[in-house]
Amino acid sequence: MSERFVDLAVENGIAVVTINRPKSLNALSVEVLEQLGQVIKDIEKDDKVRAVIITGSGSKAFVAGADIAAMVNMTAKEARDYSIFAHKVFESIEQLPKPVIAAVNGYALGGGNELAMACDIRVASSTANFGQPEITLGIIPGFGGTQRLSRLVGKGKAMELILTGKMIDAKTAESIGLVNVVVPPEKLMETAKEIAQKIINFSPLAISFAKEAVNRGIEMTLEQGCKYEIELWTDCFTTEDQDIGMTAFLNKQKPTFKGA
Ligand code: HXC
Questions:
Q1: Is the pLDDT of residue 1 over 70?
Q2: PANTHER family from the entry (predicted)?
Q3: pTM of the complete model beyond 0.90
Q4: Whose CA is nearest to atom 32 of ligand 1?
Q5: Does the pLDDT of residue 23 top 80, yes or no?
Q6: pLDDT band per the 50, 70, 90 thresholds, residue 203
Q7: What is the 3-state secondary structure (H, E, C) of the chain?
Q8: Ligand 1 atom index nearest CA of 112
């Protein structure tokens, strides 16, 4: 049996996915990406899973990047295939109709920062560091970094990080909008689970529509995005959960959403 580099544990509707390759600071080899992609597919099909947390094993690294040892001798064709495959896996995270939270426990560099950015929300340990150091290796980000970073933090900051390859600490990452919240290391998983729990109390259909509206809309003009929003907003009114939520409010009760 091949070695496991991605662990999955499901508890109370929350799947915790752990990148577990500590000897290489959880670097994303093809095997790791394949296993991560398969775990995301399994999660998509599993109705018991309502939210996902992605983290790294150990206290040092979330993911220290793509696997430099595996890339050093790649041909251009192999490098292209590697990038295409990672993009597919990250897209499957971004497009998963369930919320995904990155619990960034340490270094999130290169492909690691790119993985965190494919998630919906980033919670960081105060000991985490972020960066796109590819330029120091004679390459550029290839798992979506040039695109997702500028969308998240704006072109100027993205250019600064990508062109200088410098690392920033968690507080700085929070100040530029790369990270949602910074917590002490011992509170990292607890905070990520609290956020996941808060979200899964809501209608899973509304959550998936909201995620789709934001993710698809950001690729459109404002006018197209607003039209797209109207369609998804309208879809909410075909669900029982819309009735459940609004009726509960008017009756001063707490709604119990059905996901229907
Ligand atoms: C392979 C890695 C690795 C990586 C660390 N290791 N990062 N192996 N790929 N990305 C390995 C080291 O070689 C070392 O192995 C072990 O993990 C521990 O790392 P050290 O460097 O000894 O630790 P430390 O001195 O504490 O430094 C931590 C670090 C540093 C600052 C995170 O490891 C580092 O700079 N790593 C590379 C970060 C990086 O450049 N990432 C971007 C990769 S390119 P041994 O066997 O010596 O113990 C990328 C492109 C994506 O992500 C797009 C591709 C298409």
A1: no
A2: ENOYL-COA HYDRATASE, MITOCHONDRIAL, ENOYL-COA HYDRATASE-RELATED
A3: yes
A4: 64
A5: yes
A6: very high
A7: CCCCCEEEEEECCEEEEEECCHHHCCCECHHHHHHHHHHHHHHHHCCCCCEEEEEECCCCEEECCECHHHHCCCCHHHHHHHHHHHHHHHHHHHCCCCCEEEEECCEEECHHHHHHHHCCEEEEECCCEEECHHHHHCCCCCCCHHHHHHHHHCHHHHHHHHHHCCEEEHHHHHHCCCCCEEECHHHHHHHHHHHHHHHHCCCHHHHHHHHHHHHHHCCCCHHHHHHHHHHHHHHHCCCHHHHHHHHHHHCCCCCCCCCC
A8: 52
Indicate whether residue 133 lines ligand 1 (CB < 6 A): yes
Q: Which two tokens stand for residue 50?
A: 């309502």
Contact call for residues 62 and 102 (beta carbons, < 8 A) = yes
Identify the residue whose C-alpha is closest to ligand 1 atom 12: 24
* pLDDT tens for each residue of 29-58: 999 999 999 999 999 999 999 999 999 999
Catalytic residue among 114, 174, 186, 223: 114
The pLDDT of residue 2 is 79
Q: Is the CB of 67 under 6 A from ligand 1?
A: yes
Does the beta carbon of 25 sit less than 6 angstroms from any atom of ligand 1?
Answer: yes
Spell out the domains of the chain, with CATH numbers in brackets. 6-200 (3.90.226.10), 204-250 (1.10.12.10)
Ligand 1 atom, smallest distance to 82 CA: 55
